[in-house]
Design goal:
By secondary structure, the chain is α/β, with parallel strands linked by helices. It contains 15 helices and ten strands. It folds into two domains: 231 residues, Malonyl-Coenzyme A Acyl Carrier Protein, domain 2; 67 residues, Alpha-Beta Plaits. The protein has a four-stranded parallel β-sheet with strand order 2-1-9-10, with helices on both faces.
Length: 312
């Protein structure tokens, strides 16, 4: 069984999607539709930068989604490989969950772009700049990371945001608590803590105002049921019903991204090949988690052509 997976924030870079757009009308049409939906030339920022504009959360989130959807559309329209015919399940890392749901038909492309623009704006606005932070704990399992977070909190928020793989956990919260956690990391047997270049503390309880805004948006634009199961970030369990998907998306704003558990759950469900579309960040995490599974990352036309030949 194949699992199709979609990257999250941090996978953006200037020039993303440029090669696909030059080579394929299918890719160009995706970027044009997203530009129209947002009322801005996001594709120009993706193609030309500047990097600081692309990195803005409200731009990065729909840009990463658009790039992954363009990659999928090229695979489907240029090479004849339909996700519906070859995917046993799907998952996405944080905002990648919206990308996955777009591919499955829970949202159309324009709605997905607008929801992610709002999500980025809401997450940025939830905490004043400079008050929150995130850090990657290298050489930490989730149990050790949880103990460190509790010790560093000291009446501030310090929580696990991402359980990425067996040796990488990300924490999120007030900047003072995150700084304390980095300083205390070695005392807890963790190789080191590295503060991440993010503008807000994602996936922790400080994001509740953003969760409230997304709850309102998803009430107005509820996801449809899907046929192929999505393994949800916050539960690491498959969902197909639109109402359950809506609940998981709201919980996801403040909740932990259980990526390691999701990968293991997909492997237990029968996934033997994990196909990452539009990035090369998830495959290494998956390889460290499900060591018996194969991974492939599809970014370039050459990647897509090789995958299409293999799958036929």
């Amino acid at each position: 069984m194949r699992a199709f997976v979609f990257p999250g924030q941090g996978s953006q870079k200037v020039g993303m999607g440029k090669e696909l757009a030059l080579a394929s009308t299918a890719a160009r049409s995706v970027f044009e539709e997203v530009d129209d939906a947002l009322g801005q030339s996001l594709s120009t920022i993706m193609r030309e930068g500047p990097e600081e504009d692309l990195t803005l959360t409200a731009n990065a989130q729909p840009a990463i989604m658009a790039n992954a959807i363009a990659t999928l559309r090229v695979l489907e329209q240029e090479f004849g490989v339909k996700l519906a015919d070859h995917a046993g399940c799907c998952a996405g890392h944080s905002l990648g969950e919206y990308t996955a749901l777009c591919t499955l038909g829970a949202f159309d492309l324009a709605t997905t772009a607008r929801l992610l623009k709002l999500r980025g704006e809401a997450m940025q606005a939830a905490v004043p700049v400079g008050e929150g932070a995130m850090a990657a704990l290298l050489g930490a399992d989730v149990g050790t990371a949880g103990q460190l977070a509790d010790a560093a909190a000291k009446r501030e928020v310090c929580e696990i945001a991402n359980d990425n793989d067996p040796a990488q956990v990300v924490i999120s919260g007030h900047v003072g608590a995150i700084d304390r956690a980095i300083a205390m990391a070695k005392e807890h047997g963790i190789k080191r803590g590295v503060k991440l270049p993010v503008s807000a503390p994602f996936h922790c309880s400080l994001m509740q105002p953003a969760a409230d805004r997304m709850a309102a948006a998803l009430a107005d634009h509820p996801p449809a049921d899907v046929e192929i199961p999505l393994f949800a970030n916050v539960t690491a369990e498959p969902v197909t019903g639109g109402e359950k998907i809506r609940e998981r998306l709201i919980e996801q704003v403040t909740g932990r991204v259980r990526w390691r558990e999701s990968v293991l759950a997909m492997e237990d469900a029968g996934a033997e090949l994990f196909v990452e579309l539009g990035g090369k960040v998830l495959a290494p995490m998956i390889g460290r988690t499900a060591q018996g599974a194969r991974t492939t990352s599809l970014v370039t036309m050459e990647d897509l052509e090789a995958f299409a030949k293999e799958i036929v």
